[in-house]
Amino acid sequence: MNNGSQSGLERRLEILKNRQREELLDEVGQMADREFAILSQEIKNGFEYEKAEIRKDLSEALEEVFQKYKFMEERGETGDLKWIYFSFLRSSMMDDYPAYRIDFYDERDCYSYRECSGSWDFSFVFSRFRKLKEKIRDIFSCQSRVKEYETDDMLYSFYEKFHLMAAELLGQLLQDSWGDYFNIKKPAVIRVKEGELFDRTNIIQEWYLQESGEI
Hints:
This protein is an alpha+beta fold. It contains 4 helices and 5 strands, in the order αβαββααββ. β4 and β5 form a beta hairpin.
């Protein structure tokens, strides 16, 4: 076989491999879209039913961070609580532990050099992302046409969709009274932000607390 014929065959084989690769990606993408539709419907239908348990889980996460904050405040390391951040950890997707990071700040906001943080996995939402991710990974682990790392863009796009749902539901959870968890000595306004760590955030709730700790 001369060089021209060989290079022509190689080109045809490369075209065929690329076509098979694109077909597989398209097939898996359609499957993932269908699976996401099912999972997102589960979230919408189950939220009100499981809201009390989700709220309990969230309040435990907030309480843990608040206890740290009170200890720092008693030592004079920080001022009155003014800000709470729920930061969507994009990197946690790759670590198989999707979660929110929770940060408490005084009037210095996120510019404070004193860190007081915790985490909340919001498993009601993010466990379903893990389920979808595992299904996608399983498909690609059984073939050689597409490298596993090439699925990252697809996974990120679904993670963004789950994040949007999580942010919406978090806003609904935080509309409830949380005064019991903030035993303050004087009236205060605590603002809650949601977004990505060290990136864009939005205020999703403002709590006006009285001395009794009630909103």
